[in-house]
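User: Could you check the structure of this?
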Amino acid sequence: MDSCDGLRAASRKDLVALGAIALAVAALHVATNGRFGFHRDELQVLDDARHLDWGFVAYPPLTPFVERIALGLFGPSLIGLRIFSVLARAAAIVLTGLMARELGGARLAQVAAALAVVVAPLALFEGTEFQYTSFDYLWWVLVAYFVIRLLGSEDPRRWLAIGVAVGVGLLTKYTMAFFVAGIAGGVVLTPARRYLKSRWLWSGAALSLLIVLPNLVWQVQHDFVSFHFLQSIHARDVGQGRADGFVRDQFLISTNLLTAPLWLAGLGYFFFARDGRRYRLVGWSYAIPFALYLLGKGRGYYLGAAYPMLFAAGGVVLERWAGTLSAAWRRGVYTATFVAMAAGGALAGAVILPLGPISPGNFALRNNGDLREEIGWPELVAAVAQVRDSLAPEERVNLAVLTGNYGETGALNLYGPAYGLPRAISGTNTAWYRGYGDPAPQTLIVVGISRRYAESHFKACRLAGRNGNPYGIENEESREHPDIFVCGPPLEGWAEFWKGFRWFG
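Assistant: Sure, the predicted structure tokens are below.
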């Protein structure tokens, strides 16, 4: 076997190792993803997936489109509807290892980088639910991979691939614009500025714009409602303290604390290593979004998708440093590294994965608010159906269920048809555009709205039922929205009421 054959064989074995890691992680998610229930955010995406459009208030259109495909393939299956998130996570793991290879890393560097993504709490979470952040994470990693290949090969045609990945990313989550700002800044601040004269860079930018153009048209037609939504959500997050601890969260959420030396070494590689100079653009593509989020009070997890490229470089640094040590010390370094990753991954998994029974004593449910928001949705719909069944026949003739948040809307529209419930109506996010129906309802079952609001806006309200769950799990629904009312139509008439019955959540 000549040297070229040996390199190809080694490359295949490296890819097999990365594939095995990704496959094991995917199997773990498939084995656990059906244990609890849908998260309120997933229920919103599911509801929007039945009303496909080129835009939605809370996010761009790609995620509902993918969920529509999953819904057609698997029906309302937890495991089936989450499978594309699992595949996205597996792909991000493999791509991280491939980035390490592009940077000159052999198998140990690639495996270390991939495993650092495996045990990162945010990345672990992305495989447990169907969220637009799952795909956003993948597109950031894919863009970073293409950028590293561009800088390593100096082939300007790779800007086309970057442009496509950026465009798809913008159709998934608008925060891709922060990564674009980082790449643009890196181009200007490094020798990569020579590409500003390349038609390939501008062709890639044009491709991005072409891909995102339908959504941009939708935004224009809807008065840039998503911009106003993001402003509102950001103000809420800052006001409630959700944006506090941004730097801390880089170590505890976006990455695993025990892998911090790896990504810090990777960041140092891009800025200070002699052979890292050609990749300095990548360092700026992390540093600039970091600064923007820090100054703008972004939430800690927003930057999570930027770390795989740092893990890739960190794996190379680790491998090269260990190569200077004696065999015994080298084994010790690798053993300590992988033991630390295993320990960090076990702790992250205990908090994030839906393990154990649904009970107040469950460790994950006690420590993970997102998991608690997966509990109680079928019970809510059953309670609404029970209220409907208690109504007089004349009250059921022109009946609607009005909800106060998108989780309730999604749950009722997912599970409600089995009970013969009417379509839920809501003023939250994109559901507001779907209106209140024609003819306008005369009897309302009101869920997720306070007694004070219901009595001040609707005729003849009465308490008719209670919302909760049989497990004793305290979450937003059981704590803040326990009452179900039956009311008449709005006091001010439907048209006037609906104008003001609109909010972002």
